[in-house]
Amino acid sequence: MDFHQQLLQGIHNRQPRDIARAISIVENNLPGAGAILSSLDSDRVNQATILGVTGSPGVGKSTLTGALISFYRSQGKRVGIIAVDPSSPLTGGALLGDRIRMMGHALDRDVVVRSMATRGRLGGLCASAGAAVRILAASGCSPVIIETVGVGQSEMDIVRLADLTMMVMAPGMGDEIQAMKAGLLEVADILVVNKIDYPGAETLTMELESAVRENGRQNKRICQTRAIDNRGIEELAGAVDELDMQFRQNGERDRRKQVSLERETIEWCIDFLRPFLTDKLRKEQKNVSSDPRSVAQSLIKNLL
Amino acid sequence: MNTTHPPYRILIAKPGLDGHDRGAKFIARALRDDGFEVVYTGIRRTPEEIAAAAIQEDVAAIGLSSLSGAHMRLFPAVIEALKQAGCDDIPVLGGGVIPDDDIVGLKKAGIVQVFTPGTPLQDILDAFRNACRNNNPKGY
């Protein structure tokens, strides 16, 4: 049996190291990445529920994720987590600290946590995060939670990998305004007001309720939590379950999957084309003219 | 930015009851600034938790920090935990307030390099890079 088949079998049998190795191979685009991804257990991959958890730094995403892990574990579910943190645009380095809040589950073999850096790629992150989600799902994890800071575009794209998304907020951080102006309300299915013991939590909840009402988006849920001591987590998980069921029945889940698969496919195309295009451009033009748009057009025209 | 290979992944961890993590955080930041991807586990971890996290994150090397004097027990315990999991090929480096006499024993126990308060930062970064390179010829 060759190395990749061994990995695939390991993933299926929930072997921690094989799962981890497979994710590295895919993330680094090493030989065999394609072979692994194309032979994953497609039943598991298609059935798994993918949850997106996003929100500004410091609102309690990782703590909330930790609390959700505990809840799902109490139900006997095997949980996967992809925790995304930014890479430095200058050095390419990253400090991945989300795991700190989840270390309580470190010895639980049915909680698989993988930290990922954005690696400053133009796109591409979505592709490798999507692949990692699939590997976790193929190892029997459901739900798989993708946790990411909800600020740049690439993070929003990751969130779209999810079947449903929760946006975490906390009082006193100006998030009520952020939520209204940044279009985040459109992406999130569940708005979570965390740290409800802090002053301003009720105001924030009410403002969100009225914003949701004004938007005519009745389908959105608002949940209140205090993740640090598991308050409101059961209700939140209940809302997730309900929406998940609803989306599976009314076709919304399939529709979203199609959109995100389409996006991921295009990203892979661009990823595969990038080195080829760079090479071609450098061969054709020593100094690129100051009109990159038309250079790009003619480059692609020649290609087609 | 990325050069030829993707960034190396490192786990920085503090085993045992020692809560002084200034050194661990300093090294984590220095490695980040040198282009590594650093997973930090926080303080007060058991050797088994550290081994499990290192395996899940598929890191190329582990850095341990201890300022409490328990390094002779805890550092080798991490190696033992990795061995139990069949993953003792992951190199382990250590640092902290460690007397010279202990360094020999730690190295004998399998710790690749030991850093003390006087070690120049560049030496530490080079040691991590070498450990990663030796462990992971494929680059992950």
Number of domains of chain B: 1
Biggest sheet features of chain A: 7 strands, parallel
List how many beta strands of chain A DSSP finds: 8
* Average predicted local confidence, pLDDT of chain A: 87
The secondary structure category of chain A is alpha/beta
User: Which percent bin holds the helix content of chain A?
Assistant: 40-55%
Biggest β-sheet: strands ordered side by side in the sheet of chain B: 2-1-3-4-5
Describe the structure.
The complex is a heterodimer of chains A (304) and B (140). Chain A is of the alpha/beta class and 304 residues long. In chain A, 52% of the residues lie in helices and 14% in strands. Chain A has a 7-stranded parallel beta sheet, with helices on both faces. The longest helix of chain A is centred in the C-terminal third of the chain and has 33 residues, at 252-284. Chain A has 13 helices and 8 strands. The mean pLDDT of chain A is 87. In chain B, helix 2 packs across helix 3. In chain B, helix 1 links the parallel strand 1 and strand 2. The model of chain B has no long low-confidence stretch (mean pLDDT 91). With 140 residues, chain B is α/β, with parallel strands linked by helices. Chain B contains 5 helices and 5 strands, in the order βαβαβαβαβα. Chain B has a single domain (9-135), classed as Rossmann fold. Chain B is globular and about 35 Å long. Chain B has helices spanning 22-33, 47-56, 71-84, 100-108, 121-135, and strands at 9-13, 37-40, 61-66, 92-96, 114-115. In chain B, strands 2-1-3-4-5 form a 5-stranded parallel beta sheet, sandwiched between helices.
